[in-house]
Amino acid sequence: MSWSPDGAYLAVGHAPTFCLTIIDTTDWSVVPGTPAVSSTGYDCAWSPDGAYLAVAHAGSPYLTVIDTTDWSVVPGTPAVSSTGLTVAWLPDINRPTRHGILYDHDGNPLSLPVQLLRRPAWARSQVVTPDPVSGAFTVRGFAPGDYHLLIPDTRPGATDDRLLRITLDETTGALAPLEVYMPYAGALTTINGNATKAIDGSAADDVIVRAWGSHGHVIDVVPAPSGDWSAEVPPGTYDITYRSAGCQPVCHGPYTIAAPEEEG
């Protein structure tokens, strides 16, 4: 018998049928869809992050690992040679770590589930939820190596998830926190203008829109022959640069663009 790390579930190994029962402690109901193990369940253990449940049992393959996101059996788990009597996970203290902070587009702390996936197999190693106040999180791998951080963006209006490649080893836990910024989620708004050359009135070659505070690149635009241009951008404050071959760049700003519901 074993409690999940957050106390949300109780796993019980038993005989004679199904041999594994998982109970939802919010209402003490049996979790539907729990896979059966082949014979008497002797021991079970949750991974430190609660992402997996390992069950030692009688009957081949004698060890079953369950993905707790959907209660499916993890494929590829090696069989042991005879009845599994006990099972345990590597303690967090012995695992390579990496600290991070998750921010939204505007630099505010954000709390979205962060998935740690082992490369190149894309096998999920952990799911953590950043602190809702600070956005801080820590991921732990089962072994040193290359990993992906996948952050599905479930916020209303979001269209892009975030995927990063990281390395975990005995030194990465001491590094400064990795700062992860999610793409903007929400309705875009229009920024526009007219970019022409003073010498002959023809259109500039291109227009660069950058975030005012960080000067981070947002979008490039090629004006129409008249010089008119427009772009869809998140609400915010921007600077604009006009560029033409043989001419000095011309910078303008700051320009603050309100969200559509704030306009008018």
Automatic annotation (TrEMBL):
Query: What's this protein's name?
Result: Uncharacterized protein
* Record lineage: Bacteria, Pseudomonadati, Pseudomonadota, Gammaproteobacteria, Chromatiales
**Alphabetical list of SUPFAM superfamilies matching this protein:** Carboxypeptidase regulatory domain-like (SSF49464), Putative isomerase YbhE (SSF101908)
Q: Give the originating organism.
A: Marichromatium purpuratum 984
InterPro entries found in the cross-reference section: CarboxyPept-like_regulatory (IPR008969), WD40/YVTN_repeat-like_dom_sf (IPR015943)
